[in-house]
User: Fold this.
Amino acid sequence: MRVLFVGDSMTIGAPGAHTWRFRMWQHLTRTVPEGGWSIVGPRSALHGGGDAYADPRFPPDARAHLADWGAGWLHMAPVVEEAVAAHDADTLLVSLGLIDLGFYTNPEQTLENVELFLTRARTANPALRAVLLPILPNVRAVTDAGFAAACTQFNTLLAKAVAERSEPRSPLLLASAPEDWSPRRDTYDGTHPSAEGEHRMAAAFAGALHQAWDVGGPYRAGAR
Assistant:
């Protein structure tokens, strides 16, 4: 299994962060036999280009990703094919959407970019599988009813698209959003995950992988 993390600022992380990618690496290390998986991708830095991750135990070869601050489906659709092909990725873990709806596209237009993203990723690897995380509400969704409605609408469209576009040779999963996600508890600034939020995001992906594809095991919140 060659895992490619795809995301925005919640995934790339800022200097001093652990990132949910680190939490996922810890989980895979604990639950998947050594040699059965690797983390791949064209980038490894945190936002700003540095490598000041919070935990030095995060090895350089596990820091790979395809994420960027301010990125959305709009931005990742044109680059995912090259990343999948160049790094032979076969499993995508994707968290995108807030940026699209916040600045660029409505729910229907955002879904078009999701579909383009999947088409291009599958062009590089027709047997690719992917886990997609619904949009997690940030502080704007708490205070802006219109934005909250757009996020809810997009998540509904995303669930439908995942169900319709999943194929036996290229399965898609919609991860369950962390229950009662709270910008106050689960982020440090209203959007970006706190330590608790990082664990909850990793647990969402880990749960999908384990329950649907028997990859790894249950996410152990106590193993931090």
